[in-house]
Design a protein that fits this description.
The chain is α/β, with parallel strands linked by helices and about 210 residues long. The protein has six helices and eight strands, in the order E-E-H-E-H-E-H-E-E-E-H-E-H-H.
Length: about 210
């Protein structure tokens, strides 16, 4: 059964749409990816054009694939940095895992030339006390564990954003989102991993197949 939130939203952004002079990077995520996008774009300036598909949709929602297709069908991306896990809480973790696996198949089929990087979902903090983790972080950990197993099976590298911020409540602006300092830290690591993976794997086969 399809399960949605009261408000669903999407934000698709493509820089350099009229210019093929640089390879393209696509960031797929939610409001957190959208918040650090500008940092990634600045860090990768002159090396890549950056695009984003930020959405509230879970991988279990068919609209998620339709939104991605708007970018994948008409653009060639050297790298897709991908996260999904902090929405769709009405789906249990096994359903999430199954939907994520199907989504990976979809991305590989639509964009076989792209190198995939999976980003772990970030923790949640108590709304009235950011120094403490919200109990729902246990679900984030489990989704990250399931996603990590899938990525390992498919030889897709993992960018551990969860581990990057778990011990830093000072990076958070609220219980879910990050302040400017946190956005800078996340964006810098995302950009660094994109450069590392493309440099390390230049000329090698693109991972991502089942």
């Amino acid at each position: 059964m399809l399960k949605r939130e009261y408000i669903e939203w999407s934000d698709i952004w493509l820089t350099g749409a009229n210019d093929n002079g640089l390879p393209r990077v696509l960031l797929v995520g939610d409001s957190i990816a959208r918040s650090y996008f500008a940092v990634v774009e600045k860090e990768l300036s002159g090396r890549f054009f950056c695009a984003r598909s930020a959405t509230s949709r879970s991988v279990c929602d068919p609209v998620f694939g339709k939104e991605l297709a708007l970018l994948l069908d008409d653009n060639r991306f050297a790298v897709i940095h991908f996260n999904n896990g902090l929405h769709g809480w009405d789906y249990d973790e096994e359903t999430y895992r199954e939907c994520l696996s199907k989504t990976l198949d979809f991305i590989v089929a639509r964009s076989p030339v792209s190198r995939l990087i999976w980003a772990s979902s970030t923790p949640l903090r108590r709304e009235n006390n950011l120094a403490e983790l919200d109990p729902e972080t246990d679900r984030v950990r489990e989704r990250n564990r399931l996603a990590g197993a899938l990525m390992t099976q498919r030889n897709i590298p993992i960018n551990d954003l969860f581990g990057l911020v778990i011990d830093h409540p000072e990076y958070f602006g609220d219980s879910v989102h990050f302040n400017a300092n946190g956005q800078n830290v996340l964006g810098a690591q995302v950009a660094r991993r994109i450069v590392e993976e493309t440099t390390r794997n230049a000329g090698q086969a693109v991972p991502g197949g089942a």
